[in-house]
């Protein structure tokens, strides 16, 4: 199958299989991350991440500048948009401008399974311990069911 995977300013086209999907979304989440892992016909891996947010802000909120958010008319907000607790834009008129957070897409191509695991690993800034987030762990566990190379790399920890 052919997949189109969005990255920041481009779209990656790949042929192969989607190995797994995972999400950090929980009931009541206002921000979460969705991840998909693909294996191309040539044997490379493509990791796709999208950061989703339902939050929107007033123009005066610090988050607007920090994330370079663009204004839209309040009437065009999605039905499940959630007002920021800091700036509380909930009372604005329909024709007022608000600043919704937007989805952020990132994709990464990896030549092999160990590279995918490294791409998903995080390091605790204090203990320096390497770990996987729950959403990354779930993504790899599902992928391991159909990909022996991922299974092998999850079981083998390489100590530098
Ligand atoms: Zn705000």
Q: How would you describe the overall organization of this protein?
A:
By secondary structure, the protein is of the alpha+beta class. It has helices at residues 62-66, 113-120, 134-144, 148-155, and strands at residues 2-6, 11-23, 31-40, 45-53, 55-57, 72-73, 82-83, 97-100, 104-110, 121-123, 130-132. Strand 1 (2-6) and strand 2 form a beta hairpin. Helix 2 packs across helix 4. The mean pLDDT is 94. The structure holds zinc ion. Residues 57, 61, 63, 84, 86-87 line the site of zinc ion (ZN).
Per-chain topology:
Elements: E1 2-6, E2 11-23, E3 31-40, E4 45-53, E5 55-57, H1 62-66, E6 72-73, E7 82-83, E8 97-100, E9 104-110, H2 113-120, E10 121-123, E11 130-132, H3 134-144, H4 148-155
Parallel strand pairs: 5-7
Antiparallel strand pairs: 1-2, 2-3, 3-4, 4-9, 5-8, 6-8, 10-11
Helix pairs in contact: 2-4, 3-4
């Amino acid at each position: 199958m052919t997949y189109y995977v969005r990255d920041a300013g481009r779209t990656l086209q790949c042929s192969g299989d989607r190995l797994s999907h995972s999400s950090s979304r929980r009931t009541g989440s206002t921000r979460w991350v969705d991840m998909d892992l693909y294996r191309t016909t040539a044997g490379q891996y493509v990791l796709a991440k999208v950061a989703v947010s339902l939050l929107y802000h007033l123009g005066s909120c610090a988050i607007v500048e920090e994330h370079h958010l663009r204004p839209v008319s309040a009437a065009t907000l999605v039905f499940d948009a959630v007002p920021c607790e800091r700036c509380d834009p909930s009372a604005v008129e329909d024709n007022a401008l608000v600043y919704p957070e937007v989805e952020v897409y990132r994709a990464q191509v990896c030549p092999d399974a160990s590279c995918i695991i490294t791409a998903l690993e995080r390091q605790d800034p204090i203990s320096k311990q390497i770990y996987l987030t729950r959403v990354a762990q779930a993504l790899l566990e599902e992928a391991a069911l159909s990909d022996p190379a991922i299974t092998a790399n999850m079981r083998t920890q390489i100590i530098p």
